[in-house]
Design goal:
about 170 residues, four-stranded antiparallel beta sheet, three-stranded mixed beta sheet, 6 helices
Length: about 170
């Protein structure tokens, strides 16, 4: 096999040929990743606080709000993680749509996620670009390689932190 020559000013990396000034970082180095929960017995439509889950992520990425389940205010207030902020990136962590993503726009004053999603928050306020980067064909393929399990496929928090992201590209986009 003949190795493709790399143009001047570019380097070959795990994610492909990129400009020299770009940097590969693991997602866990530049983001926080956390999951939510739901109360024993599940969620209902009668609770006070919206609780988003895998059903709120579109199959082709993006958010949908046509079916919102809710938890009680007491339960939401007791959650240590999984409280949504504006522009949080949500990723399905298990099931048939593992790896699908949504960018949460703060349409609720207070909302949570359940245990089937992770929130991804960039440390440098570049969630918009990071979201589109994570939706790209190459990164989606990389996410698929991190999914484990056959009967119930899923992403672990540990494997999600290992996903490679191009850091300097994020700076340029910001």
């Amino acid at each position: 096999m003949v190795e493709e020559k790399v143009r001047e000013g570019y380097i070959r990396t795990e994610v492909g040929i990129i400009p020299e000034e770009w940097e590969e970082k693991e997602l866990g180095e530049i983001c926080t990743i956390e999951t939510g929960s739901r109360p024993k017995g599940g969620v209902t439509e009668e609770g006070e606080i919206p609780s988003l889950g895998e059903e709120n992520i579109k199959n082709q990425n993006g958010m949908k709000y046509d079916s919102i389940k809710k938890v009680s205010r007491n339960y939401a207030n007791s959650m240590k993680s999984g409280i949504l902020n504006n522009n949080d990136i949500l990723i399905n962590k298990d099931g048939a749509n593992t790896g699908k993503l949504g960018l949460y726009k703060k349409i609720f004053n207070y909302a949570t996620i359940n245990e089937h999603l992770y929130t991804i928050r960039a440390q440098n306020d570049c969630n918009h670009f990071l979201y589109y980067s994570l939706c790209s064909h190459n990164v989606q393929n990389n996410i698929k390689t991190l999914i484990t399990g056959a009967a119930q496929p899923g992403l672990t928090r540990q494997s999600s932190t290992k996903l490679i992201i191009l850091l300097s590209l994020l700076k340029e986009q910001k």
